[in-house]
TrEMBL record:
GO-annotated biological processes: cholesterol metabolic process
Keywords of the record: Cholesterol metabolism, FAD, Flavoprotein, Isomerase, Lipid metabolism, Oxidoreductase, Steroid metabolism, Sterol metabolism
Domain Glucose-methanol-choline oxidoreductase C-terminal: 451-506
Protein name per Swiss-Prot or TrEMBL: Cholesterol oxidase
Source organism per UniProt: Actinoplanes awajinensis subsp. mycoplanecinus
Similarity comment text for this entry: Belongs to the GMC oxidoreductase family.
Classification via Pfam families: GMC_oxred_C (PF05199), GMC_oxred_N (PF00732), NAD_binding_8 (PF13450)
GO molecular function (one): cholesterol oxidase activity
Cofactor(s) required for function per UniProt: FAD
Entry's EC annotation: 1.1.3.6, 5.3.3.1
Keyword Repeat: no
Domain Glucose-methanol-choline oxidoreductase N-terminal: 67-270
Metabolic or biological pathway, per its Swiss-Prot or TrEMBL entry: Steroid metabolism; cholesterol degradation
Amino acid sequence: MSDTDSTDVLIIGSGFGGSIPAYRLAAGGARVVVLERGPWLSGKDFDHDFKFGSASTRVFEFTMGDGMNVLGGNCVGGGSVVYFAAMPRAPRFTFERHGSLGRRLWPGSVDRSALDPWYDTVAESLPISRNDWSDVTYSGGLWAAACAHAGRTANPVPAAIDKSSCTNCNWMMSGCRFDAKRSLLLNYIPSAVAAGAQIRPLHEVQYISRTADDGYRVHFNTLDEVDYREVTGSGTIDARIVIVAAGAAATPVILQRSEQALGEMPAAVGRYFSGNGERLNTAIVNEDKVREVLGLSRPDGVAYEGYQIGKGPVCASWDKLDGDLPEFSRHSLEQLYFPPGFGSILAQVPDATGPSWFGVEKKEILRRWKSWLTIFIMSEDDNEGVFGPPPPTGNGDRIAQQMLSRGALSYEPTANTLAGWERADADVRDILERDGLSRVMPWTNEVIGAYTVHPLASCRIGDDPQTSALDDRHELRGHPGIFVTDGSAVPAGLTVNPAFTIAALAERAVPGIVQAAIDRGVGVRYVSRPPEHATVSASSPVGAGA
């Protein structure tokens, strides 16, 4: 604990869903405390290494479930520190999806037109830049050329990147040491701190209870900065308003564990989880065919061998994002660089005569890793994930000092989800295997199950109390004064990278949270001005991390 055990607003998590209301409410005069499970790192700390104790193991959390695995941020700034900064808006049709329910998944008050002004607010606040073909990397260019050869279209992806500062180092997934990636460390977080918000890293929230004056008490443990399994202390903070933004793999666990103290949770807490329909295909590119069919070559005479060069996803094909297509046949295909290690293990051998994920043939494709092209599928899944009983502490049972835990999420793909993946896989093959350009194989689900870097919908907004944990203002049903503003509030998969939509929804939720705070006696007003843009990422101020 530092200098206070009470506040007006207590926010759990510092990603998009936490930092945006932290800034808006603090700037409006509320006392705000943000509890973040992970450490506080800034540009100088984002080393280019995968060894234990580097940023790569400190800022990630890989939670293994039964049939689904989630890779997310675990640091001040949350997913914004480890994302690839791809920021497309969700297609209009996603807001009209029915899934297997047979009725609209999103609340009637939220569609693309209603969300566009909030998208605009985020675009100005980060800011987000349009890319052109001069910003596209070798791997993105190969993907675009292959799409054109197949009669498809491809587009540069809008991104929250300062192009004048980007060095094309390709380490942005582990944080950006050059502060070119516009994470929350460069805008909402420093502006929140300047307005008086306290951000406390290495504070893992366990549960929420009520206070005698109709407020809430948040119970937390403090964690060791090296071994996250080690609890160094515990405490409580009382607040009039609680905003839960711990991520779609942790928010429902905190709320489930709070049920004994708070009373019955909505039935949809911890249900309807979506992995955003994500799936990866790796193409082993034939360099000769790239030269012969696409007419591509680099100055040194190499046709491609550019997998490791440049940023993350910079080029996508959105041909199948067509609202006239039937549900579960719509998807985006995005070129992606996935770092060595996890990606190398799960990349599969096309046409393997033995095991597809290890052995002599696997060694051969690893030898040719510079000629890989990885395509990231984001499709329409069926919200089939369910969280079981929560573990004693945290959102999972920690297996290692950092990065790795086992959670209570179970996920068994329905026929709809499987059919969507199959259609998207076929689409990738049609583009990349044409005229012998490559051989393509999806990453296996059999070894560890499905996986997502964009978990969604485990406490979603909606109009139906039976299938949505939150009302359309993001307030937890039956528990006034508790709001959820992270990816768990998004009702369903978006078929594109979801960070922009999560941020826009968080911005949209703030006016309602301000009014709820006023109703509960907090002196606060809504502030619309954008945060200041910093050029150097925020580090923990004296006293803020204690």
